[in-house]
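Bench log, entry 3. Co-assembly request; chain sequences pasted below exactly as received.
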Amino acid sequence: MQVGKPVRRRVSRAEREQQILDAASTVFAERGYQAASMDAVAERVGVTKPVLYDHFGSKEGLLLACIARARTELLEVTTKAAGSASNPEDMVRRGFRAFFDFLDSQGGAATLLYEEAATPIGSAAEAVEGIRNQQTGFVTGLLNAQAPGADALRLEAYAQVIVGASERLALWRGRRGDVSAEQATEYLMDLVWSGLGATTPR
Amino acid sequence: MQVGKPVRRRVSRAEREQQILDAASTVFAERGYQAASMDAVAERVGVTKPVLYDHFGSKEGLLLACIARARTELLEVTTKAAGSASNPEDMVRRGFRAFFDFLDSQGGAATLLYEEAATPIGSAAEAVEGIRNQQTGFVTGLLNAQAPGADALRLEAYAQVIVGASERLALWRGRRGDVSAEQATEYLMDLVWSGLGATTPR
DNA sequence: ACGGTAACCTACCATGAGTAAGTTACTTGC
DNA sequence: GCAAGTAACTTACTCATGGTAGGTTACCGT
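Structure output for the full assembly:
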């Protein structure tokens, strides 16, 4: 008897791209970037390795694409949340809250956002840089709205602090497992908000 | 004519260990963890690969040892700085300042501290955990001294925030290159200190 | 001097990133 | 409908590098 022939399904480029990103995000999150093999990703998609290279160029490229997609989603979510606020304080609070909720909804795949440190120093630096600016730029915008005319360098520094603080708190929360998104948000607000309030144009 | 024989110098274990850590720190910082090869490290020491494995077990082990050493130095420096303060605010400020100065003194090798994300998920988790606790524990201690009796979970969260903020600000400073350690310290203090001041035992 | 041990090296394996070249499914013009 | 073109896909490799087995040599204690 003839076992059903492989029936090589062909799929549009865009569709395959998403499939690959899904699979890669999962595999990277499960095993960590280093330990994850390209063959494992390929197998999960149901395809062979060169396909991945045709789409993303390299393992690092694939990682960056995963990070970029995740960050874009994150940015959308937080932007939307901040937009529905009535006053500046509420805006920041909603932003933080949306951030933590987003990470919860992504499950373990959140770790992926912090794998960018795994990228070799010089190579894709500008890509990483762009992704970074995306987030800190958003925060800078929020701050600027709250304290228009304030020292630009200071605002940039504040944005860095806020992003760093959020990331670290999120990782800590993930490890502990018993801290609610609400609690984390309050901690962040309590520590940071009064400092922001003191920011006035000079 | 006989070209001078290799004169295989033999060296005590502890000494070789330090040589290897020095070389590895440099190579990891230059090329990044991934792109750095064990052979490159070995060559820099003037030794062959199996020696590295005899001392540190694996590439990851070597990385962790580098990170641990650097963090220990950092902890020493900040502890000393904080100890010479007259009041709580000054203590925190001196701690931050020492942190930035330390990274400056280390040059590019500072990036190394943040390569811990490069370690595969489950494997050396407890080692990474220990290193992390070393730093956040120190900060928690500082906070506790300032606000004795405050909610322990909250203090832990604050410690995470502060560490994350510092790290991120340091990376940003390294990339920009035109922000003094003093300036960075002030930014951090301004944002965080007033929030800390509001922390009272409940 | 003379074992014994610990540092060290040569020579190898295994895995996984990346690629060249050919094959097959779909599309498009006639 | 049907050929020709093209884009997705595969097989079958290369090559760099993490890691190791087993032998060799410098040093230390007696």
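The two ends of chain B are 84 Å apart (CA to CA). Residues 8-10, 37-39, 49-50, 53, 58-59 of chain B lie near DNA strand D (CB under 10 Å from a C1').
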